[in-house]
Structures are given as structure tokens and as C-alpha cells.
Amino acid sequence: MRRTLIAGNWKMHGSLSSNAQLLAALSSGVDEAVAADVLVCVPFPYLAQAQLALSGSKVVLGAQDISERAQGAFTGDVSGAMLQDFECRYVLVGHSERRCLHGETDVQVAAKAAAALALGIVPVVCVGETLAQREAGQAAQVVATQLAAVLKHVGVAAFSRLVVAYEPVWAIGTGRTASAAQAQEMHSGLRAQVAALDADVAAGLRIVYGGSVKPENAFELFAMPDIDGGLVGGASLVAEDFLTICRAVN
Ligand code: PEP
Predict the structure, then answer these.
(1) Residue whose CB lies within 8 A of the most ligand 1 atoms, among 167, 217, 236, for a mutation test
(2) Which regions of the chain are under pLDDT 50?
(3) Domain ranges, residue 221
(4) pTM for this entry
(5) What is the mean pLDDT of the chain?
(6) Which residues does UniProt call coiled coil (predicted)?
(7) Rounded CA gap, 207 and 229, in Å?
(8) How remote is the CA of residue 5 from the centroid of ligand 1, in Å?
(9) Which of 35, 152, 182, 219 could be cross-linked to 178 through a Cys-Cys bond (beta carbons 3.0 to 4.6 Å apart)?
(10) How many angstroms from the chain centroid is the CA of residue 79?
């Protein structure tokens, strides 16, 4: 039985004052009635604030990126050990905005996943195709290649300690969501890819969907058999919307 994960990705949004309100609302709003693990991935400068505000709550803390290296002369990068100092339990790796805007490659994403795993931090490995790739009929092949790089680097057994996020690039921040059936088809393909190597690991693997998840579409998406929750960008910045999505878990 896979426990649903609802992860908020704040991206580069927030301020000390707006975060305080949002974190307080999540801290009190995520209660026993929410049948999911709830995670927020905040910008690095706000990790300390979020750690304090979420302490004692059911909401867990994560980061949006991790260096593949342990330490050294890597200006601007943040190591896994630094994330651990703030009790980050999860970290996003390979978000399409990192792949597209920062040139992260499949190999680098795999190395980042390995760096997180080595420290017991759960990587949320993001994969997804662009609109051009979907229209060219390449969606399944693109995400399979992205996933294969991580499988090759960390091995299938490590997939019992990570989460996969299927995020079609054309649905991120656009208001255009994959239909529940489209997302289910992709999730089922990703699970089959892992099952070909280890059926038990595949059966326990959480694959969450990201791409304009909103209160209006969350219930239908989460009802699909291979969709184990959501990675939520824009709607995670509005407490009421994010809490409604968390409560849409069946
Ligand atoms: C995301 O940031 O991963 C995301 C899916 O964003 P949005 O929900 O805004 O599409």
C-alpha cells in the first residue's frame, strides 16, 4: 500500500512575512483528517524559518535542489549535509526548471539523487516531456530515458527510498493539466519500467503527478491507480488551495 504524498514546491516565491502566514496555516491545517504525507519544498534562505514554524506539525520540510558534491569550491551550491542541518527529509532533483534553465543533464540529476540517498534524504526525481516532444509522439521515450539514467546510477533497490514525479513541462505553471487518463498512462509506463527490474520495488514506488494541480482537478488525478499524489507549484502558495488538495486524497 503506497501512502500518498502531497508536495508543495514554492519555487522562488515567498518572504519572511508571507511565509509566516502560510506555514502557520499549513501547520494547523494538516491534521489527522489528511490521509497523506505533506511536504513543502521552500527556497534555501527560508529553511530555518520553515524548520521552526513546522516543528511539531505533520508537515515535513524539503528543499528544491541539492549539490551532487559533498563540499568545496562550488559557489552558490548547497550540499546535502547543509540540508540535513535543517531537517530536510526530501529534496527535488531534476525539476524541469533546473533542467531547462540551468542545463542540468540526466547524468547530473542522477548524481544529485545519489547524493541525497547517501544521506538518507528522499529525492523526488522529476521527469517529464516538453510539448514538442509530446506532439512528436516521444513522451514515453523521453521520460523513460530520464528515469533510466537514475536507475543506472543508483540501482533499482534504491527506488524503494525515492519518489518519482511525472511533470509534463507543458503543464507546469501553464494552467493546462494533463488529463487524469494521460497522466495515468505515463505513470503506469514508468512503473512498468521499474517493474521490469524489480516488481516489488515498483509496487511500492510512489509516483506523483505535477503540472497545474488545483483543488478542481486534484480528486480526479489522485483517484487514478498509479498516481500517488501531487507535486504542486502555484497552488501550494495559497494555504486554502493547498489544504483542499491535501484533503482530496481518497
Ligand atoms: C511545479 O512547480 O513542479 C509545478 C507542477 O508547478 P504548477 O503546479 O504551478 O504547475
Answers:
(1) 167
(2) none
(3) 5-247
(4) 0.97
(5) 97
(6) none
(7) 7
(8) 15
(9) 182
(10) 18
